[in-house]
Every structure is written in structure tokens, then in C-alpha cells.
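Q: I'm writing up a methods section and want to include an example of the input and output format. Could you take the sequence below and give the corresponding predicted C-alpha cells, formatted cleanly so I can copy it straight into the document?
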Amino acid sequence: MVAVVLGQKSDLKNVKVLPFKKKRELVNYMKIVTKELGVKCSFCHIPNDYTSDKKANKVVAREMIKMTQSANSVLANLNFKEVSCWTCHRGNRHPERSPFEKS
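A: Here is the clean output for your methods example:
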């Protein structure tokens, strides 16, 4: 399956929620995500089969990306800064505390 972004074909496969058309764009984004989560690519991906959805962490990551995109859509309408994985994760695989815990 070849991804179609805004009516244009892409060489990327199984990219369902990210807007990228070029591999370079996707790789640059993923480098940011790995830093923000403090993980390596293999945390979500099967090495040599990045298109596979067999790892649960990839499925969760896709949902978290959708959540972040949704939040940023709302925040943009309110003139707030964007959030990213870093907002909650701070370089950790899992956030250190629940958003409901007081600082």
C-alpha cells in the first residue's frame, strides 16, 4: 500500500497519521520522537520491517500521535503553543507522573 498525501503519491508505506511525503521528513520526525521518549527505533518497530504493526508500542504511538495532533488543533485555535511527546514524556518511555498528580 502506497500512502497518498494530499492527492500525491508517496514512497512511504503504512504511514497512516503523519503528513509526510518524503522518507527524509519521516526520519527527521522519528529522530525527534526517539529523543523525546528516550527510546530507540526498535521500541516501536521491528528492525528491517518498519511497516509492520505487530508491535503494540507502534499501535500505541500512532494513537498518541493522533492525540497530540488533536490537542494541537485545539490549542492553535486558542493561540497556545504546540505540545509534543516531550510535554508529558520528558525523555522517558512513560511519563513519570500522571497528568492528574499535583506537582
